[in-house]
Design brief:
The complex is a heterodimer of chains A (about 350) and B (about 260). Chain A has a domain of about 160 residues. In chain A, β1 and β2 form a beta hairpin. Helix content of chain A is about 55%, strand content about 0%. Chain A is globular and about 80 Å long. Chain A is mainly alpha-helical and about 350 residues long. By secondary structure, chain B is mainly alpha-helical. Chain B has a domain of about 140 residues. In chain B, about 55% of the residues lie in helices and about 0% in strands. Chain B is globular, with a radius of gyration of 21 Å. Classes of the chains: A mainly alpha (about 350), B mainly alpha (about 260).
Chain lengths: ~350, ~260
């Protein structure tokens, strides 16, 4: 996000909410209270923005659901953008000194704004909402083909992700709807929840169900995902692989192992013998390993056509290291899958 | 003016009782030509929930929203009530004919889903159904009030996030919770069955599976109609089916 110089903040008018009904008898706006505070109801007005603009930079609107944030403003201020002068709130009825109260409100507003700016600067760019939304842009055919891809990866030929060039010359990947090789977040999320429910069903069949089992298996599966994600992230850091903006992709790839785990557990209900069960488990493990090897290849070993020139020499040096890291990562999946299969 | 048309108790009561003759009209108050001025600025889709608060202002006090009543404090203890006070159910936003109409729509899987059916998203019906579900489970020996509330809350929030991420047109959380709660009705039937017989055998599994499919079919139909999503009905149905599967797990397996 570009650095915005200090300027008078101009909050945007919330378009999702219509103007609230205006009370004809209170000339300065409306009130949203259900009970009046006392015999002399104060003229409650929001803190005028011009008082806080001296030491607070532009008010960052970071909330993804914009209308929710506007609802959270106490009290909301859509009426007052058009007025040039807003009278002071009079707190005389509440027994608080006027100047002290005004100073307190000013301090509070500036503290909230400073906190939001800090969060925005440090964590704002971590998981952008548009990227999350793009990962959920799936269709029926994509889901079916992707599950087939995860279970039988040796049947797939081309693993390159399709790119498209925007008007500004940026290179970005296509959404899952258009590209079968693009990772999505829908399948991993659904597989995770299905795994939790199947573990509950499994314990119910064996007559040891308790609702807390759902929470326990959800927590352990979440722990597996976190450990896997951290190992990939730290490994990428050691091999100097650029992972900016690829957090969601790594999370998606960690979640695809649940598909194999679910099918292994389901096959155990078909009363196969012990040896056949382990054969099936190892098949799904190898399928998942191959899928990860092929998919993470584009992440860890970047295509020279896409990367910029300064990293080209570095990638040649690190190439063998990255290949080793990729192989170790794929083989570690057996530990995770073995842990998950034991519901 | 605000005070002039805020007391129309007789007309609103007439419209409230006349819902029986107009089952297709699901606005809380029958839309009159003066509907725009009755609640100036209110969203028509939330008429049902905003109605009672709009008519609380009373007594000729100038500030809108002030509930200082005329008459002394003793009128609170009498049965006369305040002047111009709406009836209690109307004030609470509980409309039994609406609840019945929406339940009939859910229970009949062959009915055509009107896309405005969930415009007044009331939570009274869903709360009633979840409470009945938990009470039936209590009668059958599985007291899981906390778990059913937790699963319902967590599931509603998850489905709300998922639907907003997957569709271009957003949906608000009250409507999601309302739809999910109304479509829980077949699951309440399963809970009633579980009082009399145990569901832990193959017949019980089949019954639970049928009710999951029934709930999911109606809920995904309503979501797809309200959100106007194209060829994503199965993708919406799967997470909703997982949520109802969780409820079925609670009702089939006893937590001993």
């Amino acid at each position: 996000m570009a650095h915005v110089p200090l300027r008078h903040p101009v909050p945007t008018h919330p378009v999702s909410l219509p103007d609230p009904p205006s009370t004809p008898s209170s000339p300065d706006g409306y009130q949203r209270f259900s009970s009046s505070p006392g015999p002399a109801p104060p003229q409650q007005h929001p803190q005028p923005q011009m008082y806080s603009s001296q030491h607070v930079p532009a008010y960052p609107m970071t909330s993804p659901f914009q209308h929710n944030q506007h609802n959270a403003h106490p009290p909301p201020q859509p009426h007052h953008q058009q007025q040039s002068f807003v009278p002071q709130p009079s707190f005389g009825a509440w027994g608080v000194n006027d100047a002290t109260a005004q100073f307190g409100m000013q301090l509070g507003t500036s503290a909230v704004a400073a906190g939001q700016e800090y969060v925005q600067k440090n964590f704002g760019g971590f998981i952008p909402l548009t990227s999350v939304k793009a990962h959920f842009n799936v269709s029926n055919s994509y889901v079916i083909n992707k599950i087939k891809l995860v279970l039988f990866p040796w049947m797939h030929k081309s693993w390159k992700r399709r790119v498209l060039r925007t008007e500004q010359g940026h290179v970005e990947y296509q959404s899952p709807r258009d590209d079968i090789n693009s990772p999505d977040l829908y399948i991993p999320l659904m597989a995770f929840v299905t795994y939790v429910l199947i573990s509950g069903f499994h314990s119910g069949i064996h007559a040891r169900f308790h609702p807390r089992i759902l929470g326990e298996s959800a927590s352990s599966a979440l722990g597996v995902i976190i450990v896997d994600f951290l190992s990939i992230y730290v490994g990428c850091y050691f091999c100097s692989v650029q992972t900016s903006g690829q957090v969601l992709d790594i999370l998606a790839y960690s979640g695809y192992k649940f598909v194999g785990v679910i099918f292994t557990i389901l096959s155990s209900y078909l009363y196969f013998s012990g040896a056949l069960y382990y054969v099936i488990f190892f098949y799904f493990f190898f399928a998942n390993a191959l899928f990860l090897l092929r998919s993470l290849r584009s992440l860890v070993l970047p295509d020279p056509a896409l990367s910029s020139s300064p990293t080209a020499n570095a990638s040649a040096y690190y190439r063998s290291r990255r290949i080793t890291f990729l192989f170790i990562e794929a083989m570690c999946q057996i530990v995770y899958m073995f842990f998950l299969v034991r519901v | 003016m605000w005070q002039d048309n805020s007391y129309a108790p007789s007309s609103s009561q007439d419209s409230y009782y006349s819902q029986h003759q107009q089952p297709s009209n699901l606005q809380f108050y029958a839309p009159s030509p003066s509907d725009g001025s009755f609640y100036p600025g209110s969203r028509p889709s939330l008429d049902g929930s905003m109605g009672p608060q709009g008519s609380i202002s009373n007594g000729g006090v100038a500030y809108g929203g002030n509930i200082q009543p005329v008459g002394g404090w003793w009128t609170a203890f009498g049965t006369g009530g305040f002047e111009g006070e709406p009836p209690l159910l109307e004030e609470l936003g509980i409309n039994f004919s609406h609840i019945r109409a929406k339940s009939m729509t859910v229970l009949n899987p062959l009915s055509h889903i009107d896309e405005h059916i969930m415009d007044d998203a009331d939570l009274a019906g869903p709360i009633l159904f979840v409470f009945c579900f938990a009470i039936f489970l209590l009668f059958s020996g599985k007291p899981n009030f906390g778990y059913s509330y937790g699963v319902g809350l967590f599931g509603s929030i998850s489905i709300y996030l998922l639907l907003n991420l997957m569709s271009e047109k957003g949906i608000d959380a009250y409507r999601v919770t309302s739809v999910l709660g109304y479509c829980l009705l077949p699951m309440v039937g399963i809970g009633a069955v579980s009082v009399m017989m145990t569901l832990d055998d193959i017949f019980g599994y089949l019954l639970a599976l049928i009710s999951i499919i029934w709930c999911t079919y109606s809920a995904s139909g309503i979501f797809v109609a309200v959100l106007r999503m194209s060829d994503q009905r199965l993708l919406v149905a799967y997470p909703v089916g997982l949520l109802y599967g969780c409820f079925a797990l609670l009702s089939v397996f006893s937590g001993k």
